[in-house]
């Protein structure tokens, strides 16, 4: 058996080192190749998950909850924890602003709290009785809302527009002139800020010629069952030349079984159709309370 010389040992060591370095380099290259293939796929998957709810929509809230201490807390909680979600909130002190220059002490305490959030737009409730109510009474209600900041000496005791309930579906020149007159009044009053916002609520698809006289129109107000029957995505096909930015949907009486992925699908469908959405599982007093899945709904709107 022969014995290796010193030079041969050094050569062997260098060969071993080179071999190890080669394996390390190959391992690093393999790792980089794997990362190059996997990371983009992960990023794409993450982005898909993040964006799979469709276009962003505002949370629409018919807040017909009397503001006893703590009664509006469920709303304030989701507003404060979802600063990237915009809320359109309708308040209704007394089937309108009420008979006095200012609402009662509970409203005057709570309205400024809501108005202080940058992601909240407050609207005052006024009904039109399908464009049959005496327009002077509507003008009085609108002027009362607009004067709140001045009368109260509190700039936060304010709304930023009007929600006109019971607007007509069937077209007439008289009704269009009536509604446009009211919109012009809201837009011209400084008490509503620089961009007085107007929402119409016919509760169903109106003649499309009315759309231009409002910033947003509630084209669906009904039960989950009605929403399903009207085939969701085809629901608003009867509004020619409209855009989702003009439309609002209000869905109530959602079955309790519709949660998790089922609720996600419902919210996604509604977001694809309308820029403002309200969804609740309550089937009674659905505008006077917050349902058990209220937070889940807002969480989905935040995605």
UniProtKB/TrEMBL annotation:
It comes from the Eukaryota. The chain crosses the membrane at residues 24-47. Keywords: Membrane, Transmembrane, Transmembrane helix. InterPro entries: Spherulin4. This is Cell surface spherulin 4-like protein. Pfam families: Spherulin4. The keyword Transmembrane applies.
């Amino acid at each position: 058996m022969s014995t290796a010389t010193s030079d041969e040992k050094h050569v062997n060591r260098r060969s071993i080192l080179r071999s190890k370095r080669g394996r390390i380099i190959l391992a690093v290259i393999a790792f980089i190749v794997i990362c190059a293939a996997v990371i983009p796929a992960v990023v794409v998957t993450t982005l898909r998950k993040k964006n799979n709810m469709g276009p962003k929509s505002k949370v629409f809230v018919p807040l017909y909850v009397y503001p006893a201490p703590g009664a509006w807390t469920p709303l304030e909680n989701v507003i404060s924890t979802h600063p990237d979600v915009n809320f359109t909130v309708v308040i209704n002190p007394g089937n309108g602003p009420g008979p006095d220059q200012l609402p009662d002490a509970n409203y005057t305490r709570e309205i400024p709290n809501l108005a202080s959030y940058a992601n909240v737009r407050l609207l005052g409730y006024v009904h039109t009785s399908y464009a049959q109510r005496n327009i002077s009474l509507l003008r009085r209600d609108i002027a009362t809302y607009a004067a709140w900041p001045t009368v109260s000496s509190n700039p936060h005791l304010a709304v930023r527009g009007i929600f006109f309930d019971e607007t007509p579906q069937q077209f007439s020149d008289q009704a269009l002139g009536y509604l446009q007159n009211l919109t012009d009044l809201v837009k011209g009053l400084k008490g509503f800020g620089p961009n007085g916002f107007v929402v119409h609520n016919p509760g169903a698809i109106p003649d499309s010629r009315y759309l231009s006289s409002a910033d947003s129109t509630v084209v669906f107000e009904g039960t989950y069952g009605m929403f399903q029957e009207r085939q969701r995505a085809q629901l608003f096909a009867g509004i020619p030349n409209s855009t989702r930015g003009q439309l609002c949907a209000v869905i109530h009486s959602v079955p309790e079984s519709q949660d998790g992925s089922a609720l996600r699908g419902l919210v996604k469908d509604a977001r694809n159709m309308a820029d403002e959405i309200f969804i609740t599982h309550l089937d009674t007093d659905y505008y006077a309370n917050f349902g058990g899945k209220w937070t889940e709904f807002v969480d989905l709107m935040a995605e």
